[in-house]
Specification:
89 residues; alpha+beta; two-stranded antiparallel sheet; 26% helix; 42% strand
């Protein structure tokens, strides 16, 4: 983890179709938290909240400014968090 990191995640879901009609459109929700453990907890909560839509974690990442200040760095945490979710941690 780096100083001034922001942790982002996107939860997505597919459209719901009942009797040939779309009852809920496909969508996604992107949010951030200041800490990785807070992000994981929020992901769990949102997946539970939207489970009836088949919600899934699309992506999770950490972004922080390079110490030189010239560019933003990106670290993908998607697979790490998916493994934590599957492991029940």
């Amino acid at each position: 983890m780096n100083p001034k990191s922001e942790f982002y995640a996107t939860i997505s879901w597919n459209e719901c179709i009942e009797n040939g009609k779309v009852t809920a459109p496909a969508g996604e929700y992107t949010f951030y938290r200041d800490r990785l453990d807070w992000l994981v907890e929020s992901i769990k909560e949102y997946l539970e909240q939207w489970k009836n839509r088949g919600a899934y974690l699309e992506t999770a990442s950490e972004e922080y400014d390079d110490p030189s200040g010239y560019r933003t760095r990106f670290v993908d945490h998607t697979e790490y968090i998916k493994s934590k979710l599957q492991g029940g941690e």
